[in-house]
Amino acid sequence: MAQACLKCLKITMCVANFLCFLSGIGVLGLGSYMIVSEAAIIAPSLAGLELAHLLIITGIIITCVSFLGFLGALRENRCLLLTFFLMLFILMLAELTAACLLLLYENDISTWLEEDLTATLKKTIEKTDNSTSINFWDVTQEKMECCGVKNESDWKGKIPKSCCIRPCNPDAPTYYKTGCFEKAKVLFEDYFLTSGIVVIVLCIVEVLGMCFAMTLFCHISRSGLGYKL
């Protein structure tokens, strides 16, 4: 009976870790998608450290932790199981903390984004910034179909071709009426919703993984199997 229970726990643990592994792959994929989408260019001051990079790092951590739990269950190793439990607990706390901070400071993030876009646009107009800033605005306005921070008047008469609605008529150009800040807000809100759903799913899976890990750990301890390698 004890062996049958242990086998059932091992199988359940493997399934739970497989779900964690898939969740990690999903987070990794979301981060990779954000790198090649508009989300990677709407905040110019985040050129070195974007949310997409953080998601990729998180995805890698989740996949590694799930593999650790799978190996601990397969080998019936108490050290690996306990390490897996602690790492899942710390990871869950970090995810919940990050989600709470995003919700609490959502308005501050919106204000910071507007100020960041305004400052970058001002430098671009004055031509005191490097070419990266100019390329940022051209790519952003073309991909997001917007112009300036609020509208084309932000360019103070120096409206670039990327603001022109295609097909662009050089003699009588028609510019996008929506500012990039409004488009960026909508995009960020979409990613907030997606990130919130991902965090909830991850927390549920992680709690299940922790429960199975501790149950298996206790069962191995009572069975006297020791620190089996």
In short:
With 229 residues, the protein is mostly helical. The chain is built from six helices and no strands.
Descriptive key words:
229 residues, mainly alpha, Cd81 Antigen, Extracellular Domain, Chain: A, 2 domains, 6 helices
Plain-language structure description:
The chain is mostly helical and 229 residues long. It has two domains: 2-103 and 199-223, no CATH class; 109-181, Orthogonal Bundle (Cd81 Antigen, Extracellular Domain, Chain: A). The protein is built from six helices and no strands. It has helices at residues 2-36, 51-75, 78-104, 106-126, 131-144, 180-223. Helix 2 runs antiparallel to helix 3 (78-104). The chain is elongated. Residues 128-133 have low confidence and may be disordered.
Layout of strands and helices, then pairs:
Elements: H1 2-36, H2 51-75, H3 78-104, H4 106-126, H5 131-144, H6 180-223
Helix pairs in contact: 1-2, 1-6, 2-3, 3-6
